[in-house]
Amino acid sequence: MLQRVEGGAPGHGIDPYELETVTAELLAPGGPPTGTVRLGPYELEYTAPRAFAHTLRLLFGSRIYDVAPLSAPQRIIDGGGWLGLSVLRFRALYPDAHIVVFEPDPEIFRIMCRNLERNGISNVEPVRAALAGTDGQQTFTVTGSDSGSLRADARGSSLTVDTRRLGPHVTEPLSLLKLNVEGAEAEVIAELGEKLALVDQVLIEYHGFAELPQTLHEILGALHAAGHTYIVSHFNESNRACVPPLHLDDAYRYFLLIYARRLGGRPA
Question: At 12, is the pLDDT very low, low, confident or very high (cuts 50, 70, 90)?
């Protein structure tokens, strides 16, 4: 399902005090499970207030998705758009970029589209599908939060969603690829294959979950083979499994942020 959202919005920053005030209210006990908040120039509809507040802090406070200026032509693919916060951040940073965003959860997809529309975000194509290794349909666990997944164990209900391969969407140079696909990141990168060399900058949230195969080495190997230099970060102090003292047990669960870029002169 492909839709185009029309409108426009300027780039800007978010006041840190306002950000902390809004997120503290969202995290307060007894708050509403859904609603709308204002943050800077944005009017934002939310569900899962704790996850929403956490994501606001990461994107607008820690700025985990702020990368280098985009290569031309400015094109971004956002795999796992959730409520649209990543798209809003990318639009603020790169007002002229064309963005394609994938989100499979039908209700979350509707909220994401409403957030883009009410904030006048232009030149964006929302796709209601999950990125995966094959086109078709697969079982997706809906959690109502940011943890819906094709692959990871999650508490929620199951439904069938459309799946799409990334490769057909990368037929020319791509400025930025962002993936937050809850455990499907390795298969998405594997399907992309040699086309990964067409991508200038990459952001991948890696999900190190006990129930999933370990695939970090596969992702990093693919980036290296495509000519990328990479950084791996735990990206947030609340990601306790990656902050010393380190330990592993049979129920390990951690997250990593991989940032990669094809630097000038590096052969593929």
Answer: low
